Amino acid sequence: MTLAEALSGGVVLLDGGLSNQLEAQGCDLSDDLWSARLLADGPGEIEAAHAAYVRAGARALITSSYQASFGGFARRGADVAGARRLFRRSVELARAAGGGAAWVAGSVGPYGAVLADGSEYRGRYGLSVRELAAFHRPRVEALVEAGPDVLALETVPDVDEAEALLRAVEGCGVPVWLSYTVDGPRTRAGQPLEDAFALAAGNGQVLAVGVNCCAAHDVLPAVETASRVTSGKPVVAYPNSGEGWNAARHTWSGPATFDAGLAPRWAEAGARLIGGCCRVGPAGIAELHAALHS
After folding, report:
1. DSSP code of residue 192
2. Which one, of 159, 169, 160, 106, lies nearest residue 137 by Cα?
C-alpha cells in the first residue's frame, strides 16, 4: 500500500523529534550539522532513535537529513560523492528501523535550518525563489536516489521558500508533503496561511499540506484552513512541545504545552498525518497513538 492510499483510509501516525531522542541516548548535537552529523559519526544511534518511535506506534519515519547540506558535509571533509552517500544513508537507516512496517519521509529542511542560527523561524533570507530552488535541488536529488516513500518539505517559514521547494522537487518522481512552521494564522514570515496553503491546492505531487514545529493550539485552525483552501487534500500536523527555542544559546525554555488529547479533533478536521516535532519524544507519540485509537 502506498502512503497516499493509506491516507485515503485514515490517519497515519508520524514519529516525534529526532534530535531530542538522540540526546536522550546521550548523543552530542552541538555541531552545526545537528543530527545529520551522526550520519557519518554514529549511524547506529540514528537507527536506534527511529526504532524507538516505531515501538511507540509511529508508522512514518522522517529522516535525519533536515539540517544536512552539501556545504555542511564539505566542511566536515566529505566530497560531493561522500555527501550523496550520507543523504542516502539517512533514508536507509529509517528504512532499516521501520523493518517494513513504516513509510519513510526524506526530510528536506528549509535553507534557514542549514544556517543553524534559528532563521527557519523567521524566513525572508534575502534570496530569490530561483536561488533557493537551486540550493534545494541537489539535496532532493540525493534523497530521491535512496527511494523514500515521500519527501517532507518541512518547517517552511514563508511562501517564497515553499514555492522554491515545489520547483526543486518537480519531476523527481516522489510525492511530497509541504508543512509550514506558523505563528497563529500566519507563517513565521507573516504571510496569511490561506495564501501559503493555496500553493499546494492544484499540485498533484503534494499529497498533504499542513504545519509542523508550532504550538499545539495553533494546529486545529491551521488544519481547518488547509483543508478548506485545498478542497479536502489530506493535512499533515506535527507540532512541537510548545517550548521556545533560543538560537543564540541553543536551549529550550518555557512550559511544554503539547497535548495529545487534541489530536482526535485534528483528525476530524482533516489531518491524516499526525505526529510530533521538537521535544516530543516516544512517550508523546505513544500518547498520540492512544488518543487516536481510543
Report:
1. B
2. 169
Mean pLDDT of the chain: 95
The set of cell numbers assigned to 165 is 521547494
Among 132, 207, 202, smallest CA distance to 167 is for 132
In the three-class reduction of DSSP (H, G, I as helix; E, B as strand; rest coil), residue 7 is classed as helix
Q: Which three cell numbers stand for residue 70?
A: 552539501
Query: Strand pairing of 186-187 and 182-183?
Result: antiparallel
Annotated binding site for Zn(2+): 213, 277-278
Secondary structure element (H or E) that encloses residue 186, with its range: strand 186-187
In this predicted structure, what is the pLDDT of residue 246?
67
109 in Cβ contact with 156 (< 8 Å): no
pTM above 0.90, yes or no: yes
Q: Can you tell me whether residue 167 is helix, strand or coil?
A: helix
Q: What is the pLDDT of residue 250?
A: 63
| Binding-site positions | 213, 277-278
The amino acid occupying position 76 is R
Predicted confidence (pLDDT) per residue in 194-252, tens digit: 999 999 999 999 999 999 999 999 999 999 999 999 999 999 999 999 877 666 666 76
- Maximum C-alpha span of the chain: 50
- Residue 101: name the closest of 138, 137, 140, 56 by CA: 56
What is the pLDDT, as a whole number, of residue 34?
Answer: 80
Residue with cell 499546494: 200
- Contacts of 73-79 with CB under 8 Å at 24 or more apart are 73/33, 73/36, 73/40, 75/32, 76/33, 76/37, 76/40, 78/40
Q: Residues 161-172, buried b or exposed e (16+ Cβ, 10 A)?
A: bbbbbbebbeee
d(CA 216, CA 66): 21
Return the amino acid letter for 144: V
Residues of the chain with pLDDT under 70: 245-250, 252-253
